[in-house]
Amino acid sequence: MLQEVFDVIVTTLRMVVGITIIMAVFLLVSMGLSYLHGLYARGRGAAKGYTSLKTVTFGDESAVTANRFASVAAIVTIFLLWCIATGSSLIPTVLPPPFVGETEFEYTARNAQGDTDTATVFVQVYGSDAERPDKPESMPLGEGFAKNDYVQIVERRTKVLKAQNNDEGGKEDGYEVIEINGTPVTREETVPFGKGEIYMTKQGSLSVRPSTGLTMEALYLPPPEKVWSSFITLNKEGYQGVGLWENVFWSLIRVVIGFSLGCLFGIPLGFAMGLNSWLRGWFDPIVEFMRPVPPLALIPLVIIWFGIGEQGKISLLFLAALWIMTIAARAGVSGVNISKVHAAYSLGATRRQLLSKVILPNSLPEIFTGARVAMGVCWGTVVAAELVAAEKGAGKMIIAASKFSLTDIVIIGIIIIGVIGYGIDVLMRMAENKLVPWKGRG
Amino acid sequence: MTGLVIDDVSMTFELPNGGNVEALKNINLQINEGELLSVLGPSGCGKTTLLNILAGFLAPTDGTMSMNGHAITGPHSERGMVFQQGALFEWMNVAKNIGFGPKMKGTPQAEIDAKVTELLGIVGLQDFAEKMIYEMSGGMQQRVALARCLANDPDIILMDEPLGALDALTREKMQSLVLDIWKKTGKTIILITHSVEEALLLGERLLVMAPRPGRVHKEYNLPFAEMGVGADLREVKRHPDFGPKRDEILSMIWDMEEEIMGRTESA
Fold first, then answer.
1. ipTM (interface predicted TM)
2. Which of A69, A371, A403, B124 is the least buried, fewest Cβ under 10 Å from its Cβ?
């Protein structure tokens, strides 16, 4: 227990170092570009308008607007870092790539009689996504008792070679490889050779490790062009028989239905709680209890109750949206300025008219804020629910792909999920500006 | 009996700590039709409470009120209210705000439109019918509030510091407007204010209230409102009686505040 806690602390500290380094690199690039942009913008009258005349800008939030150039530059920077880290073919090589191609090394062996002889090992390293090349028909075995060998290795992988197997007397006791390229070697020792290194195992075999370079393996992070080509294929053929957009469509349809149900019941519930003491008391414990329960924690229960079909997921999203909308509507009612209510009654409004003409429109800004939050939560929840159990959906697609180490599909899925989540928020904000233009200006 | 009758009204709040606040004590008042009454007093004298009781938003702990012979039990469109600010409906444009009352009563749209046009003229907002509330200045918003109240054709208009949030210049214009409306429509108006000048200018009758318990301290009958109709209000302020009256009332309120402060300090 104590050891585990200690390990967690060590991991955390290592993460702090790692995050600091990543942030530092990113910020250094940012500072450099900021300086260059400053040089470019100077003398061009880039800043115009009232804000540009403010002398106090540090601390004045209204004077801080997002620099669009910086936003674009940040995206380009991330893309470039991605290209560099994966050794993308879109940009010139920055980090050394893993070795691919043909190379060779010599080994010197001593047989049981104490004679020595040298032979060559031909190494062919081929790319992980390339076909395995054919072995040469014939290969000169060389003279002497040590015979030449030939080995094929996938890039970044290691292969154990028993070089002595085809040597004359290689299986006798006392037969030993003693040098690699003229460097003495003993068991459990590593010796470099031209394009990598060789480790001699306990049993005296040679473990050939071609140089892995510094770029990331596609298994962990595929280069952009590979992701793009997978995207094209995915778009055409889908994954596991389900089209890419069909997956996205199913996720969206669940969100829309679950969210709509949440609004349909949550808003009246919130109004009821805002307008009636008994109903507020009645629903208060339920709402206050359910509000802090993350929807994800309900997934197991929902699966037990409804199975993995659509009903389960829609119920989950309904529950995710319901409490948010209830609380938003309740806040909307309590946010009505009492003067407005008094004014409406003095002008002869009935209760029903007050509800539809004053309280409902007056709580729209709050309801929209709640709806934006609810939509975000629903979108996150649907993806998580699909990760657990689903037949179709964006989450299902990425979890299935991850089981087959199809990192490119996982990344495509994540990008699409992010873009759609952002798109939903933009649409909600546009609807908000259109429908409640008085928000924040009352 | 016509007009508004306040018969021995008292209002006592219970405090959470068990104490009592006598916001109003034994108020007796008769307000006749067409009267312009201004109510003045230091903060805490219960003038807003009194107005809320008249409007029907609060029930007094004691006493009764009647309007044109029937008891006041809740808000009613016969008693229009103009609030300090924030009571307009931001989701409606100016015309819809003004037409709200008639619309709630189911008045035909053509009739509402005619009424709204007429009222826009009275408050000087002819060109602003389609504007949204949040696009207008504070003074214009209060004009809309006045028009909205008038659209319902109430028997009495209750004004709760309607000009309190306006700057001095706008305020002066609005004071003239209130006088104009009073004269043109002949409505009974009760106006609460904490400005002595405003109370003098806009009160045919002026009540000075005193706090703890909230009560009517002194009552004046004044000629200035009548003079101010259609005239320059600055002219009225230069009237030889105006300055002394203002100073008298100011020192009266000053004394009340001193008394409260003294009492608080000794307590």
1. 0.90
2. A403
